[in-house]
Amino acid sequence: MQKLNNIQHVFFDLDHTLWDFDKNSALTFDFIFKKHKVGTNIKDFLSFYEPINLQYWKLYRDEKVTKDYLRYHRLKDTFDALNYTVQDNLIHQLSDDYITNLSSFNHVFEGTFQLLDYLKTKYTLHIITNGFKEAQNNKLKASKLDHYFETITNSESAGVKKPNPKIFNFALNSAKAETSNSIMIGDSYEADIQGALNIGLDAICFNYHKTELTKDIKVVQNLLDIKDYL
Asked: Which residue range(s) make up the domain with 89?
């Protein structure tokens, strides 16, 4: 594994890369279901919700559904799959409460703070996220990650979502960085890795999903392993 000597700017994805989305999301649903007396088993709910949510995020990324459509239908489809009846007004309330309370739980992946403390002394750090602006800003502040990053690019400010080349170019311009002196770190092969590589931006995949990837992709299973590259 060879150290990368030309890097000045490091761009991170947020959800599923630094911020442990799955764990925090599960805790949020548990909280709001108890608040609203939703009687479905949380493990059963999540077993349907997580793949449905991923499908809707892919549609959202591809500009095929709106933010509001995603927020409502990922819940509606999950309750339908469970054969659990929930009135529309409660689905909308749960959708709002989920966003409101999501940043109340702020588990990050093992090694996150150690890695950022190490990188901060050597590089300028940035975020590129497809998440919604208000939610992502709240997550960064509440988890005490915000002070590590010089710029934060989200899909709403850029007008497009990863893997669209425009969001990467928008982030590079905001950071006054070049593809030649920058690298992208994220968990999604399609959105983060392939999106970056398509514009000539180097990338490291945090492969906690344990997806099969080709040998030419830089991969780490633990965040602290990024030190081997940087």
From this structure: 22-102
